[in-house]
Specification:
Blueprint lengths: L1 H6 L21 E2 L2 E2 L1 H16 L10 E4 L7 H9 L7 E3 L1 H15 L1 H6 L2 H8 L14 H17 L4 E3 L7 H7 L10 E3 L4 H9 L18 E3 L2
Parallel strand pairs: 3-5, 3-6, 4-5, 6-7
Antiparallel strand pairs: 1-2
Helix pairs in contact: 4-7
């Protein structure tokens, strides 16, 4: 893990923009644009996510999960949505990372392109690495997929759950801008002690589950712990 952490620093072999990152593969991306073959894969992966929510509702409701990995966001989401979980499309870039790594293993590009020499050398020396430890190499592409799915979902009014890196309330607003809803209202769920931090940053806390898009509220909605 220390090796992965060190190699994931800016400029190192596992940094998101490193030479072997998926977005730097000329078979998949050219001058920042997705190649037709790669776009077909993107379409399939997005369709798979949508098909995994057959009972999705179009009520223009959104929930933003705020908090670091392992903070209990999934648990809080289950508590908030209860039996309505199937009515929401969960947009999570980490799931796209898993899918992209799985595809890379299946088509051989994991070994042929993604693995940098620094990792190969350590593997030859007997060190073992798991695919998810190289997830940073598909970070940019997974974020691209999550944005594409989010934009489409907002445009069609789908109920969505978004799990972004949330440092301020501009995050939720940015989610709505691509589809002309810059003032969309969101429920921000923040598990555990993080709630107190969000209160101090965002103002009064209120519990509002699945708030529909509409006029901006004077305060931001936060789920108490």
């Amino acid at each position: 893990m220390d090796t992965v952490r060190e190699l994931s620093k800016p400029g190192q072999a596992l940094a998101p923009g490193s030479p072997t990152a998926s977005v730097n593969n000329p078979r998949w991306w050219i001058d920042g644009d997705v190649t037709p073959a790669r776009r077909r894969l993107h379409t399939r992966l997005i369709d798979e996510v949508r098909s995994g929510t057959p009972d999705l509702h179009q009520d223009k409701k959104a929930i933003v999960l705020a908090g670091p990995p392992g903070a209990g966001k999934s648990t809080v989401l289950k508590e908030v949505l209860g039996d309505h979980r199937g009515e929401y499309l969960v947009i999570d870039a980490d799931e796209f990372k898993r899918s992209l790594l799985h595809e890379a293993q299946a088509d051989g590009s994991y070994d042929d392109f993604l693995i940098p020499n620094e990792i190969r050398e350590r593997q030859e020396a007997g060190e073992k690495f798991y695919p998810l430890e190289l997830a940073s190499l598909v970070h940019e592409e997974s974020s691209y997929l999550a944005r594409a799915l989010r934009t489409n979902a907002i445009a069609t009014g789908d109920n969505i759950v978004v799990d972004p890196v949330l440092s301020d309330m501009d995050g939720p607003r940015r989610c709505g801008r691509p589809c002309g809803r810059p003032d969309g209202r969101w429920t921000v769920t923040t598990p555990g002690r993080q709630t107190q931090q969000r209160r101090s940053v965002f103002g009064p806390a209120r519990l509002r589950t699945g708030v529909p898009f509409g006029p901006a509220a004077p305060e931001h909605d936060i789920l108490p712990s």
